[in-house]
Design goal:
The protein is an alpha/beta fold. The protein is 41% helix and 18% strand. The protein is built from eleven helices and twelve strands. Helix 6 packs across helix 7.
């Protein structure tokens, strides 16, 4: 059995509103299915009758934030449009171990063909959403701080991983190199200084782009503010230094704390007054959640 056996691309019959662009999503899923089905599914073809029908539950093995249901639905749709997919839990919901996240029904062969690919995506997305929620929940209710991701995503999977961050209650940083100006340490060295880099960016960047500049000292912060940076990234600063940066800035720019931030520091950085806390850990080293697919009966 190969993907070519299922050439028609359609929706699994279910009620799901997609906020993921299907042309981009399908490209990711088709590549994953082709990788898994390059030589067919010899096990399924050998021992499962072609006419066999099944009902299978996507089940959370541990407590987690549910995420990736639309991706699972689309995966099974690309395998067999006759499968019936039923979501059981709303995306972003905290669920207990044993909760059925979704059900898929129809050809047993088709379900088995799509099983691993669907679970691979769902497990990673649930893991990211769950980790994000932990960081978001650590922000004091009185704070204005947003928890945001970075571009430290798995190549080819940024669309799905950033969606999972949102479902975990976080927010997204710039999506790609062309979506915003972010002057980092190497740009500063190459440009000849903070002010020169900001002024050059302002002269060249589209009028719709805000200018963000990374700084690693209060002196660089002062220079960035004087040059008109609209967002300043405070890189690897102590909480005391961040507090001083907030005092010096006085609301003239958004302040983003970043660099080696742990869950334990979220509350103190939020209380220090930063607007944003960015964490590569939300996507680059998250542990996948434990989700299984169980045939009924």
């Amino acid at each position: 059995m190969t993907l070519a056996v299922y050439p028609r691309i359609g929706y699994v019959r279910c009620m799901i509103v997609f906020e993921l662009p299907l042309p981009l999503l399908d490209g990711i899923l088709v590549r994953a299915l082709e990788e898994d089905l390059g030589a067919g599914d010899v096990t399924t073809e050998s021992c499962v009758p072609a006419e066999a029908q099944a009902v299978a539950n996507g089940t959370a093995r541990k407590e987690m934030i549910a995420c990736g249901t639309p991706v699972a639905a689309r995966t099974f749709a690309l395998v067999d449009r006759e499968l019936q997919f039923t979501p059981k839990v709303e995306e972003g919901t905290k669920v207990a171990a044993g909760t059925v996240l979704w059900t898929v029904q129809g050809s047993a062969r088709s379900i088995l063909v799509g099983e691993r690919v669907a679970l691979n995506f769902v497990q990673r997305m649930c893991g990211i959403a769950t980790a994000t929620r932990r960081y978001v929940d650590a922000v004091p209710s009185s704070a204005k701080t947003r928890v945001i991701d970075t571009r430290k995503t798995t190549p080819g999977l940024r669309l799905l991983e950033r969606y999972a961050v949102r479902k975990g209650g976080g927010h997204n940083h710039r999506n790609d190199l062309g979506s915003a100006v972010l002057i980092k340490d190497n740009h500063i060295v190459a440009a000849g200084g903070v002010r020169k880099a900001i002024e050059a960016a302002r002269a060249r960047a589209p009028h719709t782009s805000k200018i963000e500049c990374e700084v690693d000292s209060l002196e660089q912060l002062d220079e960035a503010l004087a040059a008109g940076a609209e967002i300043v990234l405070l890189d690897n600063m102590t909480t005391e230094t961040v507090e001083e940066a907030v005092r010096r800035t006085r609301g003239r720019a958004l302040l983003e704390a970043s660099g080696g931030i742990t869950l334990e520091r979220i509350a103190e950085l939020s209380r220090a007054g930063v607007d944003l806390i960015s964490l590569g850990a939300l996507t680059h080293s998250v542990i996948a959640a434990d989700v299984g697919l169980d045939f009924q009966g």
